[in-house]
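Collaborator request, handled under Task 6.
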Amino acid sequence: MILGVIALIVVGPKELPAMLRTLGRYAGVLKRQAAEFRQHFDQALKEAELDQLKNDLTGFKSEMEGAARDAMTAAERQAESADRAMKSQKTAAAPRSPDPTDAGSAIKSVPPDAGPAGEPHQT
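Structure tokens returned to the collaborator:
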């Protein structure tokens, strides 16, 4: 209010409306420039955030690829280990042909109803 009274005394009642219009125009121009500056600033900030997000996603992708590669390697090792174990069990469980030089094989080949010398029992 005090500024209005001082402006009325300094500028005069004739010139005061024109001066207020001019001040209003300059205030509008300053508001538009401030809004434009804020818009550019927000856009730059958003781009920086997007760049950071992109870097984060790239890092996450690299971590996931590494984890997948490690898991695949571990699975391949497990599969190879299981394959070797199955092969070793098959070879251990395979029936052996009787060895004629083995003394135990001669005993095993005697029929169960044979006597002590391998002759059939008489009943």
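The cover message to the collaborator said: "The chain has three helices and no strands. Residues 7-87 form one domain. Please let us know whether this matches your experimental observations."
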